[in-house]
Amino acid sequence: MTKPFDASAIAAFIDIRSVRSPAVSPDGKRLAYLADTSGFNQLWIRPLAGGEARQLTDMPEPVGAFAFSPKSHDILFTADCGGDERHQLWLLPDASGPPVALTNAPGVVHLWGAWAPDGQRIAYASNGRSACDMDIYVMDVSARSASRIYQGDGMREVVAFFPDGQSLLVRESLRSGNDQDMFRLDIATGRLTPLMPHDGRARYLAARLFKDGSGGLAVCDQGSDFMRIRAFPAEGGKTTGVLEIAGCNIEALALSPDQQRIAFLVNEEGWSRIGLCGRDGSSVRMFEGHPAGVITSIAFVPDGRSVVFPLESAVTPPGLWRLHLEDGRFEPLVATEGDGVDMAFVEPAVERFESFDGRKVPAFVYRPASPPPEGGYPVLFIVHGGPEMQWRPDFRADVQFLLSQGVMVVAPNVRGSTGYGRIWHELDDREKRMDSVADLRAIRLALGARSDINEKRIGVFGRSYGGFMVLSALTEDPDLWSVGIDFYGVGNFLTHLLATGPWGRQQRAAEYGEPAVMREALERFSPINRIGRMKAPLLIVHANRDPRVPMGESENVYSCLSGRGHDCEYLRIDHEGHGFARFENRLKVFSAFARFLEKHL
Predict the structure, then answer these.
(1) Domains of the chain, with CATH numbers?
(2) Arithmetic mean of pLDDT, 560-569
(3) String of DSSP letters for 357-387
(4) Which of 510, 508, 387 minimizes the C-alpha distance to 437?
(5) What secondary structure, in 3-state letters, does 297-320 show?
(6) Can you tell me the distance from the alpha carbon of 412 to that of 197, in angstroms, rounded to the nearest whole number?
(7) Tens digit of pLDDT for each residue in 449-491?
(8) CA 244/CA 247 separation, integer angstroms
């Protein structure tokens, strides 16, 4: 007998909270982190050695990035308004008391950068002069006075202060987010010095500077298909290789306090591994023993004997961990409990499917614990956003809910995804846009032929660029899909590029194509122009303050479909951006998601 689908059961899954972004105070005594216990992310703190946690902030908006001052317990943090990504900078003196606003320009983007070594200044990027361009500013924190030290076109960010406090490490993305340059910016003169000159494209994920002022290390794919660690001199010039892991991306690094060791993260098919090596890349040691999952950052504790990191997996909600380097012991620091939920979650397996050109496309396949019903499992494909992102086995409440209801979940990393080398993630650029849709078609056809799957009950769900993939799948291959769910997806590339946040437009145009050059192709790629081909019922969800994919994209799709009498539902969420930060909104959105699937899948 087939288990009935219970849409109301999703509430318990959505109620699972998270803790993220650990940071240790300079004296090594305190652990700060983000937790959504109150309904959305706020700053919390507790003794690193263990003890009671307390909430530091009670802001009306979620807290974004944050960082301890290198000389005190002062914390710099950011917050926007309703997810509009126009972050303001705030100071929490001595990790206590009321927050102090350092900026107050609600229409301006402030990209957090770094503290100066003396703890007296901060540096950041802002588009206050021009909505399209990020300039560099340095602020005296005690005086609350900021000076623009560099003015230029396009996107740039502050990565770090150099140890002498007289210059900044700056990353520029003038051509695209995957074709970047690194510079040293002299604060007094505004002079830019190229640090890592390169032929061809390069992306720089992270960098750390040496205390002696001689240069630093960067995680990059300069001269390589995969991300590796390279060293660069302080005055620019030839870089040298330090560490690479064949066929895998290194994604983050941390320098020990004595700067003799590097802790690093490796992405192996989506799962994270922690490694340790000498500053020159020698004596590599990989650690075993933590739950298999995804780790997004790593940092040394000031005594150099351990590292802290966030970890989540398909079966482990987001929590904070510590690795003791001497004995390789892993210690959970802050965990998340899921009240009222059967914790027998399901891990995925990676399968590869042959696409139209013979390439093998990886996909995470989540198989329900229950046996397939008569006729086979219903299936929901979930396509990640980006497109230059990767589906990874992190914790997804929606996925585990679906599995509990007997729905198989398939999450492909179609061409254009990261994690498999630069060659793979450039295979969908511009004129090759629809090749990724062809990958999705190939996997759908292969799975639909399996005896344990019900070919008549296969849907597709995606957010942002994944929403575009949903709309494309339903209009390119209308007979293959029984249901679609589009969260804030792109329906028309031409209107999207006109209306998206101007500070990020160049990065999106580099990926999709400039309308002045590729107008005809962009019109062909835009699902809105083929909307009459759609057959499957569609749920659309969008928030009114989304700065990346403005709400008009969903409004136009809904208007066209409803005008044609198509089976389409539209849920608009107020005071949210490119995603849903507040618990009550997540519950509202995913309850609608579950009810729609209960009805149509």
Answers:
(1) 344-600 (3.40.50.1820)
(2) 96
(3) TSPEEEEEEE--SSPPPTT-EEEEEEE-SSS
(4) 387
(5) CCEECCCCCEEEEEEEECCEEEEE
(6) 35
(7) 999 999 999 999 999 999 999 999 999 999 999 999 999 999 9
(8) 9
